[in-house]
What does this fold into?
Amino acid sequence: MSSVAVIGAGLAGLTCATALKGLIPSVKVFEKSIFPGGRISRFRAGEYEFNHGAQYFTVNNPLFWNIVSAWQSEGIVRPWDGWIVELEKGQVSNSDMATQAFVGYPRMQIVVENLAQNCELTVSCNISELEKQSDGGWRIFNERGDYLGAFDIVIISTTANEVSNLCRGVPSISVLADRVDMTVCWSGMFAFEPRLDLPFDAAHVLNSPLSWISRYQLAGQQDKFDCWVLHASPEWSQLYAASYRGRVMHALLQSFWEAVDLPEMKAVSSSVHCWKHAVPINPINEDSLFDETEAIGACGDWCTAPRIEGAVLSGFSMADRVMKYIHKLDA
Ligand SMILES: Cc1cc2nc3c(=O)[nH]c(=O)nc-3n(C[C@H](O)[C@H](O)[C@H](O)COP(=O)(O)OP(=O)(O)OC[C@H]3O[C@@H](n4cnc5c(N)ncnc54)[C@H](O)[C@@H]3O)c2cc1C
It folds into this structure.
């Protein structure tokens, strides 16, 4: 067993690849996007930058505490002491939504960028076919049919829907991945100038198309701009999943003004993004999946818990299962 392909350079995949590095001669990571990060990646609109996916993370598991402590020592993660409130039609209904939270510094994506530095990563590479070889192992191909290499073990660390697409011939994985439902989330990214007169940093929004709004100040970004990320509720996002971007942009902005009860002003930058597979609703409650007969595994937040902690722990579990499998073969 000398080669592993990891498909997907989100937190789960890069955690797995980093843990295997040094233990296995060749670990290659393939990512369909132009950079690693998945659902913690940044969004850039001209000179403005936003965390448009995960906003912050919490820590419960002792292993994850150790990892977060190491990230803090490296200076890539900081506690987030933003003032979070609950908001309904311009009224703050609960001003004490304090939670012990952390963020990547200067941006969320730094955490994956840091992991990716130690990995052999190919970006802009959409894996669309896995072909089992008669002598074991897998050949992998991108969406143009280009052959990308043969690997003893393949790990798929994408969202559950992609896992079931790629794992059609491996029911021990695809059947479980098929059962996972994901929410849809429309994100709006708006910059205003001058800054808005809002005392809080973020709010859970009640009785609105929006569920979350958060001020985003990238370290070093000029503070004359006020950048806000708006997340529509899962229900609203599902309803408008196929709508025109312009219509969604307008609706999100209208809902924002209603939620904060400020006079409308023109945004200097407006963008929207639809997360078609945002957060798993019903994770399968397995840390990760590995089929020893087929030498293929899968990990991600859809296995464990729908958050950053879940993705990292799933990636570690995946690496552990791979090493146990290899040791078993060696014994
Ligand atoms: C809007 C939103 C808000 C969120 N808020 C929070 C929050 O506040 N706190 C929190 O803890 N969590 C939050 N989350 C969840 C958190 O972002 C995820 O749990 C975590 O990032 C999942 O990591 P992952 O590695 O499992 O998956 P992903 O990050 O989705 O990584 C999968 C990667 O696989 C790649 N990929 C997919 N298919 C292929 C293919 N065929 N070939 C190659 N590459 C492929 C993708 O491009 C992606 O980079 C939020 C998520 C969203 C969308």
Notes: The pocket of flavin-adenine dinucleotide is lined by residues 7-13, 30-33, 38-40, 53-57, 126-127, 157-159, 162, 185, 187, 231, 275, 278-279, 300-301, 306-308, 310-311 (CB under 6 Å). The longest strand covers residues 185-192.
